[in-house]
Write a structure and sequence with these properties.
Blueprint: H1 6-26, H2 43-63, H3 74-87, H4 91-111, H5 114-117, E1 120-122, E2 131-133, H6 134-158, H7 164-176
Antiparallel strand pairs: 1-2
Helix pairs in contact: 1-4, 1-6, 2-3, 2-4, 2-6
Length: 178
């Protein structure tokens, strides 16, 4: 049987966060306001969104240990998170938050038990499925970050940068061709 528990979650999340940090570091601060269209988030806004979303998940699953989203005031939470995202504006603030919050989430995941991972969280109609395990909810934190990191990699291309993962892959391919 294959086991995927807290340590595996933590390791995997840390790899994702490390790659997000490389992108955040490589994009110049003067390009943090870049957005490919008026309706798109800027580089800074995407990174702040990643930070605040992670904080929200920590609050929900670690601090409050919410067992159900039935009766949860989603619109109020969205408004609060958007306000919090607006507070992170400089590259240094964003990088510091990505580093510190990432380590807090990673440390939590390192110690999470099978009992916690198997807890069922319920959702109101019309959400399907009506329940998810905390394991699935914790995986969604990483998946959400990867989604936004992919956007940032497209932004990098638009800004004339080659994403580090592409550079690393190309270097490995060149090395193996020798």
């Amino acid at each position: 049987m294959t086991y995927y528990g807290g340590r595996e979650l933590a390791r995997s999340f840390r790899v994702v966060r490390k790659n997000t940090l490389v992108i955040a570091e490589e994009i110049a601060e003067q390009q943090y306001g870049f957005r490919p269209s008026p309706a798109s988030r800027s580089v800074a806004e995407i990174l702040a969104h990643i930070v605040v979303s992670g904080r929200g998940n920590y609050e929900t699953h670690v601090v409050q240990r919410i067992p159900t989203f039935i009766g949860f005031d989603f619109p109020a939470v969205v408004r609060q998170r958007r306000e919090a995202e607006g507070q992170l504006t400089s590259k240094n603030e964003i990088l510091a938050a990505l580093r510190s919050d990432g380590e807090v989430w990673g440390a939590f995941l390192d110690g999470v038990t099978e009992d916690v991972l198997s807890q069922s969280i319920t959702f109101p109609e019309p959400v399907e499925p009506r329940s998810k395990s905390r394991l699935e909810m914790f995986l969604q934190v990483k998946e959400h970050e990867m989604h936004h990191r992919a956007q940032l990699m497209v932004y990098e291309r638009m800004l004339g940068l080659v994403p580090h993962l592409t550079r690393e892959r190309e270097a490995r391919m060149a090395q193996s061709a020798r």
